[in-house]
Design a protein that fits this description.
CATH class of the largest domain: Alpha Beta
CATH architecture of the largest domain: 3-Layer(aba) Sandwich
Number of strands: 9
Distance between the termini: 98 Å
Order of helices and strands: EHHEEHHHEHEHHEEHEHEH
CATH superfamily of the largest domain: P-loop containing nucleotide triphosphate hydrolases
Number of domains: 2
Strand order of the largest sheet: 6-5-7-8-4-9
Radius of gyration: 26 Å
Structural class: alpha/beta
Strand content: 5-15%
């Protein structure tokens, strides 16, 4: 084991290097696998000699940026994250719109990504497991990192399967978090924890119930509406008209999984009919063959499909059977 101590000139320099609540230190530890502690204006690095040397070099580089007046805590965080991304050898991984292990696995997924890339509004419709939401989030993050958009806003209807927020226990955050959990899961899989936390603290990433979109105009943002089949027609119209300058909208959903109370038409189903003639809107259909979860998921989806089809046939058969006439006992 080896250790190095780096002196910091003043409190402002220390704050810029360490970041809010020492988040930059956490990124440094994750990127290089060293222990990093700060006390009394001194930063101590401890670990394997080669890792300590590499961490020290990176810290000195960050201090140079701070002392020149050309960077702050956010710039330092990005510098540390970039070092983690390239593996410290100065050779970045091949540039790609997505992470190396988040590539389209089917022709339909490829068309979906191309639509998101080129169109201001994209609808991705298909069963669970086809990557609709995950790929949309991955694309949005890549846009943010490339500086093409400033914010990512992830939206979901907060009322599903008949449960209304007003009747659930807990404060507002506790109430909505279970509905938004799948979006957090995708983000946590795609971004380092420290980066995701920073993005959310700084408002770069926002996760919100659909109801909170009313009255807003969203500029320079990628806006993703997930579980869109559970919007009403009015909610879908409200959401689509939130789009401001230099923004992009992605709508995902599964028309076979509508949980709206009886009598309400799905806003997604309605939009697919109403908006078809608008050239700048792309519609992408993902199918059972595009499912990329565990192989058994595709078998499960097909089995349920066969069962539901048989159930419809049985009901139709019963309806067609001749019944006893009600006239005069005939």
């Amino acid at each position: 084991m080896s250790d190095q101590t780096i002196s910091l000139k003043n409190l402002e320099e220390e704050r810029a290097l360490l970041g809010h609540l020492d988040r930059n230190l956490r990124i440094l530890r994750q990127a290089l696998g060293v222990e990093a502690t700060s006390r009394g204006g001194k930063l101590t690095l401890r670990g394997e000699p080669s890792q300590v040397e590499e961490a020290s070099s990176l810290v000195q580089k960050a201090l140079g940026v701070i002392r020149s007046g050309k960077g702050d805590a956010t710039d330092v965080a990005e510098m540390f994250e970039e070092h983690e991304r390239v593996g410290g050898n100065g050779k970045a991984r091949p540039k790609s719109r997505l992470r190396i292990n988040v590539q389209p696995r089917s022709a339909n997924q490829k068309k979906y990504l191309e639509a998101i890339e080129k169109s201001p509004v994209t609808f991705g419709v298909g069963p669970a497991g086809t990557g609709k939401t995950y790929l949309a989030v991955a694309m949005a993050i890549s846009f943010i990192k490339a500086g093409e958009f400033r914010r990512l806003i992830l939206v979901r209807p907060a009322v599903e399967a008949g449960e209304h927020l007003g009747f659930l226990p807990g404060d507002l955050e506790a109430k909505i978090r279970p509905y938004l959990r799948p979006l957090y899961d995708a983000l946590e899989d795609l971004l380092p924890h420290a980066t995701l936390r920073r993005y959310m603290e700084e408002g770069i990433v926002e996760i919100s119930p659909l109801a909170y979109m009313r009255g807003r105009t969203l500029n320079n943002a990628v806006i993703i509406l997930d579980e869109a089949q559970n919007t009403t027609v009015a909610q879908m119209k409200m959401f689509l008209t939130r789009m401001g300058d230099s923004s992009k909208i992605i709508v995902t959903g599964d028309t076979s999984q509508v949980d709206l109370p009886g009598g309400h038409e799905s806003g997604l189903v309605h939009a697919l009919k109403v908006l078809r003639r608008i050239d700048s809107i792309r519609f992408c259909t993902l199918k059972k063959e595009d499912i990329v979860r565990h192989p058994v998921v595709q078998d499960i989806v097909k089995a349920y499909g066969r069962f539901e089809h048989r159930g419809r046939d049985d009901r139709e058969g019963r309806d067609e059977k001749p019944g006893r006439s009600r006239k005069g006992g005939e």
